[in-house]
Amino acid sequence: MAANPLRVPSIFSLLSPCCATSQCCIRQIHHQVAASRIPSPTPFVPDSKTFLTLIGRNLAQQAAKVPTWDSLFSLTSAQLREVGVEPARTRRYLLWWRNRFRNGIYGIGGDLRHVANGIAKLRVVEVPRDYDWSKKDPSRIGLGRKKKLVVDLPPEIAIDTVSKAEVYPVKGFKVRGAHTIVGPYITLNKNTRGSEATLAVCEGMWEEKRGIKVDGGERRRKQVRYERRIEENRKKRE
Questions:
Q1: Cα–Cα distance between 115 and 70 in angstroms, integer?
Q2: Burial grade of 63 (CB within 10 A; 0-12, 13-18, 19 or more)
Q3: Radius of gyration of the chain, Cα coordinates, nearest whole angstrom
Q4: Which of 16, 26, 149, 176 has its CA 20 to 30 A from that of 213?
Q5: Rounded to an integer, what distance in angstroms lies between the CA atom of residue 214 and that of residue 50?
Q6: How confident is the model at residue 155 (pLDDT cuts 50, 70, 90)?
Q7: Exposure of 234 in the CB half-sphere (CA atoms within 13 A)
Q8: Beta strands in 81-118 (DSSP E)
Q9: Whole-prediction pTM value?
């Protein structure tokens, strides 16, 4: 009797256990990764409650569950679930913003240096503009030798005494026209002709808005549109 030929195992049978293990690890990896370093608070974001208020999505209501700055940046996803931060997409959003802040990625006002009681005062300063005279552009000679920037200087410092080396422009704001500050969430001060403004912490300043599902979302879009066409054709026959 002829011997049975050797059966070579299928490549898929060899890879399946590895793939299953990899998928499991990928799905649960955010529960096991240790928290990274704890960044220092900034003048605009001095505590955990302010941070949760800025990123929005009603996370300020859960500030009591993450009361300290160290706990905000040290708790893992599983620990956030234990203290009651729900649902899961809210935890993912918090972890996403936490990692951005750790890497120095802020929203509007995150680079402010002089903040008192959550309020920063913005002013317009005029500094010399850098110009490369080697280009020898006759149309630029005598023009644009100064530029106007929006800065957050302390109130006790006079604008005319500030040097260019001390000026740090605030990101997200610009000067429109002669001296009007333009940017989100600001309040122009009275009797300043728009050259001075205040920026205060408010709910959702840094919030990333969730997308809106169109026709049932990406997974159900074909089915929803198909059923809609059937219903429209039925009404036409009637």
A1: 22
A2: middle
A3: 28
A4: 26
A5: 33
A6: confident
A7: 6
A8: 115-116
A9: 0.70
What digits encode the pLDDT tens for the residues 187-196? Answer: 999 988 899 9
pLDDT grade for 157, boundaries at 50, 70 and 90:
confident
Residue 191, token pair as written in the block: 């009797």
Contact 221, 215 (CB under 8 A): yes
Q: Residue 204 carries which side chain, given as an amino acid letter? A: G
pLDDT tier, 33 (very low <50, low <70, confident <90, very high otherwise): low
Tell me, what amino acid is at 143? L
Taking Cα atoms as reference points, which of 66, 75, 182, 168 lies closest to residue 125? 168
- Cβ neighbours of residue 198 closer than 8 Å, sequence gap 6 or more: 119, 120, 121, 122, 186, 187, 189
CB 98 within 8 A of CB 120: no
109 exposed, middle or buried (CB, 10 Å; 0-12, 13-18, 19+)? buried
